[in-house]
Amino acid sequence: MKTFTSTDGALLVDKPAGPTSHDIVDAVRKIFGIQKAGHCGTLDPQATGLLIIVLGQATKLSERLMADDKVYSGTISLGTTTNSYDADGEVVSSLPVPPLTIELLDEAASSFVGDLLQQPPMVSAVKKDGVPLYKLARKGVEVERKPRLVSIYRFRFTSYEEPYGVFRVACTKGTYVRSLAHELGQKIGCGAHLATLRRHVSGRFDVDAAIPFEDLVQLSREAMTARVIPMLELLRG
Question: 32 — phi, psi (to 5°)?
Fold first, then answer.
């Protein structure tokens, strides 16, 4: 029977806004002396929430864990379109926001529920001829992007105060929520971008069980190890 160590498994981290997903993994490697580590599903630097860090032999399960469905919440800013579809990009258009209510926003959002061909934003890690799109975007180059099939299970708004709508969405892996925000703005006619994003759920894992990154880095190796979800439990899942 294959044997596993106490650091072969998954660590659930509540990522703060600012660092990249790679920054979080790199910190775990250095602080706790872990040689092999990776993450399941990239969060943009300004996004927060659940980041699954896989350690040791669990890195072999990253593709399987990444394939799970996701749940996010966030804020969409209506009336302003950016080139990255989020708040980090350059503003490309500003239009007046029409009178809106939660009901009208939900009606527009409902048209995206189901299977959807979604075009990745230019500012993304998707590669074209081996080159990440964001590198081309920095040079002012825009290329044709192959649409991806994703599924939106639920897309609803919980509050609205012009120009900000707070939403919750459940979707398949590979969904660009900022593309969803952009497309919603196009449908309404005033444009929009994703202002904030938080990942709550990935598969059977919930951010409520995650440790905030700023608390994680204060732990001893032993205390960190005690939070690792063992390989056998991951394999059973």
Answer: -105, 5
ω into 16 cis (within 30 of 0):
no
Q: Is 160 inside any structural domain? A: yes
Give the range of the structural domain holding residue 210, as residue numbers without chain letter: 9-67+204-236
Residue type, 60: K
Whether the per-residue pLDDT at 1 is higher than 60: the answer is no
Are 80 and 181 in contact by the 8 Å Cβ rule? The answer is no
User: For the whole model, what pTM was predicted?
Assistant: 0.92
Given a contact cutoff of 8 angstroms between Cβ atoms, the answer to whether 15 and 47 are in contact is yes
Torsion sign across C-alpha atoms 68, 4, 8, 204: positive
Which amino acid, 221? R
- Residues acting as catalytic residues: 44
Q: Are residues 196 and 210 in the same domain?
A: no
Q: Which tokens go with 56?
A: 């040791």
Instruction: Count the domains in the chain.
Output: 2
